[in-house]
Amino acid sequence: MNRTSKRLAAIAPSATLAVDAKAKALQAAGENVIGFGAGEPDFPTPAHIVEAAVTACRDPKNHRYSPAGGLPELKQAIAEKTLRDSGYQVDAAQVLVTNGGKHAVFTAFAALCDPGDEVLLPAPYWTTYPEAITLAGGVPVVIDTADETGFKVTIDQLDAAVTDRTKVLLFVSPDNPSGAVYSPAEVKAIGEWAVERGVWVITDEIYEHLTYGGHAFASMPTLVPDLADQCLVLNGVAKTYAMTGWRVGWLIGPNDIVKASTNFQSHATSNVSNVAQRAALAAVAGSLDDVVMMRDAFTRRGANMHRMLNDIDGVSCIEPQGAFYCFPNVSGLLGRPINGQTAGTTLELADLVLEQAKVAFVPGEAFGAPGYARFSFALGDADMEEGIRRIAELVS
């Protein structure tokens, strides 16, 4: 008899966290490692948010259980923030506050998927999505995209993939890991397709404020109001407000789905940390001044990384449009000698580069896209430039 259940035994570890942990372990051992793996801003959480948490710690009411679905004032503030930033009008009752955005992802699929239900999953995809789908009993149906098409799924591809078992389309823009941002027209067309087909959409909007150049975020249920009754919106404070460690996210959807999800959370975790919720309240109800500062830095870093990666022989990279990742095609580095070694896959290339150049990145296999690699530019300019320079020197 197996000691571990088949469901949990089948889960792959998070590749992004594994790369980050390996880099930090080498750093702790005294190695000068530059890590491009973790998807988190290098900025501290803005001071007014931290102060709100300090104040909350001193208030005894935050030392007790609170409603499993979230503090009422935070749910209301999230509804108001969603209208302000996305143009999408929802009630506080349609909001479920979760233990980070990742928790919202798992809850969303648990709420919608019965065993055998198919979920359309454009690739490259964030490494957690297929695990969350499978744990909920769903079946990921991967739809490949590539740099030639800007890593965007087309209506023709969706038509080719849909079956009578299709329940959900997962949609992400700005996208992790590719950095792609769908235009409003593209978002609207996909939303209308989902309405016509009767397919639910789970749209992850965690990077909504991180877009660059002429690219802009567009919320699907805002552009396609008829979609509202078959759409879940996922979001959180992690990326926008540099609050990855605070673990506050949310799910927005129809009342029946949110009620069922809240019941689920009442048994799984109860309430999110009250102190973290108070901090999140200060974040979403406050100004976006700090966000603008961080976005300006990411704009500069992304452009610089894009240029440096394209200067490496064997590497090609589309310009990042959103989030804080470059997703270069590194297949030109495979199968050729690199300082006495040869990598046949991007998994092997990542190990080779970490071993010889002390630079960590996440191989494309983690995102369903062999031959590519994800580089986060959410780190200091000097480290970013030094890391890319090391790779360039190693492979030259």
Description:
This protein is globular. It has a seven-stranded mixed sheet, sandwiched between helices. It has a three-stranded antiparallel sheet with strand order 9-14-13. Strands 1-12 form a two-stranded parallel ribbon. The protein is 42% helix and 14% strand. The model has no long low-confidence stretch (mean pLDDT 95). It has helices at 6-9, 15-28, 47-57, 72-86, 100-112, 128-135, 155-161, 184-197, 220-223, 255-268, 274-285, 289-310, 346-357, 381-395, and strands at residues 34-35, 95-98, 118-123, 139-144, 166-172, 200-204, 231-236, 249-252, 325-326, 337-338, 341-342, 359-360, 362-363, 373-376. It has two domains: 6-44 and 290-395, Aspartate Aminotransferase, domain 1 (Alpha-Beta Complex), CATH 3.90.1150.10; 47-285, Aspartate Aminotransferase, domain 2. The chain has 14 helices and 14 strands. Helix 3 (47-57) packs antiparallel against helix 11, helix 4 packs parallel to helix 11 (274-285) and helix 5 (100-112) runs parallel beside helix 6 (128-135). It starts with 5 loop residues before the first helix and ends with a helix. It is an alpha/beta fold.
Q: What do we call the CATH topology of the largest domain?
A: Aspartate Aminotransferase, domain 2
Rg (C-alpha, Å): 21 Å
Distance between the termini: 52 Å
**Under the CATH scheme, which architecture of the largest domain would be assigned?**
3-Layer(aba) Sandwich
Strand content: 5-15%
Under CATH, the homologous superfamily of the largest domain reads Type I PLP-dependent aspartate aminotransferase-like (Major domain)
**Sheet with most strands:** 7 strands, mixed
- Total number of strands: 14
Oligomer: single chain
Compute the number of helices. Answer: 14
The CATH first-level class of the largest domain comes to Alpha Beta
Overall structural class, as computed from helix and strand content, comes to alpha/beta
What is the strand arrangement across the widest sheet?
Answer: 2-8-7-6-5-3-4
Uncertain regions spanning at least 5 consecutive residues: none
**Shape, per Cα inertia axes:** globular
User: Averaged pLDDT, please?
Assistant: 95
